Amino acid sequence: MAGAADLLATWEAGLAEASAGRALLLHRTARPDLDARALPALPVGEREADLFALRRALFGERMQVRLDCAECGADMEFDLDAGEFARSVGVRGDTVVRVAHDGWEVEFRLPGSGDLTAAARDVDPRGALLARCLVSAVHDGAAVTADALPAPVQRRIAEAVEAADPGADVTLNVACPECGRATRAELDIASYLWTELDSWARDLLLDVHLLATAYGWSEPEILALSPLRRRYYLEMCADV
């Protein structure tokens, strides 16, 4: 797992990034074993599983989530298990789905975060995503391009992608304890994890400031201390 100095560097780099850039930085931290250039091509569900695993490694299993009931506005607070999500949201099977429908034979690659980001910039995001991820399409023996795919075939592709990569869209369905109605909400693990990392980094920098002021140590020397030793030194500073 990345050390305190590496995590601070990730946080610092992410301050200048939008949400997509921050998600990529977090994914690089989660998967140092992979070439960073390959990460945007991984299926979105695989990235989400990696981020849930990173969250578990950094901050533990328990994730606190708060939502407002869509029906009565009540404040709902509940816990999720990061480890369970890490195990359950990954890709199921091959990264290429195959659809056969009414004379059509289609192979479609599961979209990665890079595909979604690029397609979102297009005037026709749906069409752009189809074109980027279409491996092959044949109708009655003749090869065709993405723009020739009829709506029923496109729906079949979307259904096949959802079944193969359910973690690409993690949606919560929470029953309100006040009115009993269900509220649906997307769980964006990248944003959730970034918020936690931001809070952790600012707290750590305050610790560095206090210890550097008290002992004259450099930032690398302070970050090299274990969290437990840093806490003990901070307690001694408070007692002076």
| Structure class | alpha+beta
The sequence of SSEs as H and E is HHHEEHEEHHEEHEEHHH
Mean pLDDT: 91
Spans of at least 5 consecutive residues with low confidence: none
- Total helices: the number is 10
Helical content, roughly?
A: 40-55%
Number of DSSP strand runs: 8
Q: Characterize the largest beta sheet: strand count, sense, and whether it forms a barrel.
A: 4 strands, antiparallel
Q: Proportion of β residues?
A: 15-25%
Strand order across the largest sheet: 3-4-5-6
Notes on the protein architecture:
The chain is of the alpha+beta class. Helix content is 51%, strand content 18%. The protein has helices at 4-14, 19-30, 44-59, 82-88, 113-120, 125-133, 151-164, 189-215, 219-223, 227-239; strands spanning 62-68, 75-81, 96-101, 104-109, 134-139, 142-143, 171-175, 182-186. The strands form 3 sheets. A 4-stranded antiparallel beta sheet has the order 3-4-5-6. Strands 1-2 form a two-stranded antiparallel sheet. Helix 2 packs across helix 8 and helix 5 (113-120) runs antiparallel to helix 6 (125-133). The longest helix has 27 residues, at 189-215. The model has no long low-confidence stretch (mean pLDDT 91).
What characteristics describe this protein?
240 residues; single chain; 10 helices; four-stranded antiparallel beta sheet; 18% strand; two-stranded antiparallel ribbon; 8 strands; alpha+beta; elongated
Outline of this structure?
The protein is an alpha+beta fold and 240 residues long.
Please render the helix and strand layout as text.
Blueprint: H1 4-14, H2 19-30, H3 44-59, E1 62-68, E2 75-81, H4 82-88, E3 96-101, E4 104-109, H5 113-120, H6 125-133, E5 134-139, E6 142-143, H7 151-164, E7 171-175, E8 182-186, H8 189-215, H9 219-223, H10 227-239
Antiparallel strand pairs: 1-2, 3-4, 4-5, 5-6, 7-8
